[in-house]
Amino acid sequence: GKPTGTVECIPQKTSSDEDYCASYINDEGQQNVKISSGQWRIEPPLPLLPTYVNVLPGQASTLRFHLTLLTPVRRNAISFPRDQILLLQSNTFRTRQYSSGARTLLPYQYAKDASQRQLEEQLNHETGDRRLDGNDIFETLGGYKDVAEMVLERDEKRRRWKEVEGALPILDSSAYAGRRTDVNELLEDEKRWGIWPGDTEFMTVERGVVLAAVVKESKQNTGFFPWMRDGGGLEEPVVVGKWRALPM
């Protein structure tokens, strides 16, 4: 899609009156980094194929933007050259979208946690299934069969949850203790909501990832001998960090 707007760095001043946008600490002390502006866009959600042919209620939109490092960066084993492009992306929700998405996720979350809890209760050494003690071989085999079925059920419910959780709001255990009250509390959390430039409706931006385009070496042989290997490669995005946005 086409970019919607521009992201610009708010410059800071060093003691020598030089502009920089960010800083970090490495073995040589504090390092200042200059970053050029980039463009951003918010993409609408797409169906989670192949399982879901339609967009889920409250499914996230995706905020994407890029920035370019004007200063080389090096910390521990990580280094980026000058003009390295960083791609940043995150799920984003408007209030109605977030509320709907949380309620879409809750049944998957409940089912996953309930199946794990039931399995743990079955295996508990003090209060669990006494057939697993091994006193009767036939009873023990029946107990193992039931446990195996519970494991399969747990894994299937976790798979279904995993399939959707990356496109729906992030909820921890405190958020889904009650279906209605706690979701409303999240909607009223002022630290979570802000107005995106050019918009009038409140939005939240969840913690996102930082990707860098790196060249992946090609190991394809172009001849009969190893030294005839093709040395070219293709660029692919690799996750190099995480980021978060705070409303101002």
Task: Give the helix/strand layout.
Layout: E1 5-7, E2 12-13, E3 19-20, E4 22-26, E5 29-33, E6 35-36, E7 38-43, E8 61-69, E9 73-75, E10 78-80, E11 85-94, H1 95-123, H2 137-165, H3 181-187, E12 194-195, E13 202-205, E14 208-217, E15 233-243
Antiparallel strand pairs: 1-7, 2-3, 4-5, 6-8, 7-8, 8-11, 9-10, 11-13, 11-14, 12-13, 14-15
Helix pairs in contact: 1-2
Give a quick set of tags describing it.
nine-stranded antiparallel β-sheet, 3 helices, single chain, two-stranded antiparallel ribbon, 248 residues, alpha+beta, 26% helix
Report the average pLDDT across residues.
85
Helix content: 25-40%
Distance between the termini: 28 Å
* Oligomer status: single chain
Main beta sheet: strand number and arrangement?
9 strands, antiparallel
What amount of the residues lies in strands?
25-35%
Radius of gyration (CA) equals: 25 Å
Shape: elongated
Low-confidence stretches: none
Query: In DSSP terms, counting alpha (H) and pi (I) runs of 4 or more, how many helices?
Result: 3
